Amino acid sequence: MFIADFHTHHACPDHPAVLPHNATGVLAARWADTARRVADLDDLLAESGRYGVDLRVLSAPPAMVTPHGERTRPGDQRRLNDHLATVVAGDPARLAGLATIDAFGGEAAAGEVVRAVRDLGLPGVVVDCAAADGRLLGDPAARPTLVAAAELGVPVFAHPISRSTLTAEFAGLGRLGTSLARGTITAAALLSLLTGGVLATLPGLHVVFPMLGVAGLALAAATDEGALLSAPDRSAHVYADTMGFAPSAIRFATDLLGADHVVVGGDWPIAERSTTRDRVEAALRDAGLGPDDSALVAGANTLRLLGRG
């Protein structure tokens, strides 16, 4: 199977990855090495070769490269995207890139979406699923970005953030608390697109959420609005990345969204378990997927989202 990892991080050395707000001790202790790896393309490509990963989709979500409480400046977004386009052009067979966009930047953000796609050739965008001030992706401020992506036919990767209130409330759970906080805000962002009518009014929008926010899928599935997610005509194009390799979670997502709306995502280099060919094949097999559905999740869906298949 062709293996494509949709959830891989890379940022240019001039914009190093910043420690997530209220990060737990374990993550904080290894963050210096993590930030180094985010900027180390040679490390990434070497690992991809060792582990049999055919394609990496690179992204630097705004919250990863912007200090907490600050907005990602337009000039920084342009520089990040210019760098990414150069990196991808150097190895287009093994790399693709998602432009860094501050989704809550209104028309200016939409303009950068157009520039990144049309001028730089980047086949998608990555955004924060929510703003630090509490606004979710369904907020009107994010609509120009989503409209631009829908009109251009490129995917939007909605990446988790660490909201101060949730992270503090769940701090007693350690690293699981951090994951729960990030998963909760991701789930809320998905539900905001659903309840706000964004998914219904933008049928050309393709949005990818990490499996971390799977609770949003579960809640949506229990509502009348959630029928959009599994409608035969796929009137709402919501995708889940595996963000890990739990067979039961993969099975749930493929049952709800369809095997054609799930992609492999490893969260490199944040996650402790790397994406490997063996791990992907085992997870898809244990999820009970047949050869055709496994091929879709493993890489074909990502290729289609990027306009390569």
TrEMBL record:
This is Amidohydrolase-related domain-containing protein. InterPro entries: ACMSD, Amidohydro-rel, Metal_Hydrolase. Gene3D superfamilies: Metal-dependent hydrolases. It comes from Micromonospora tulbaghiae. Keywords: Lyase. PANTHER family: 2-AMINO-3-CARBOXYLMUCONATE-6-SEMIALDEHYDE DECARBOXYLASE, AMIDOHYDROLASE-RELATED DOMAIN-CONTAINING PROTEIN-RELATED. Signal peptide: none annotated. Residues 12-308 form the Amidohydrolase-related domain.
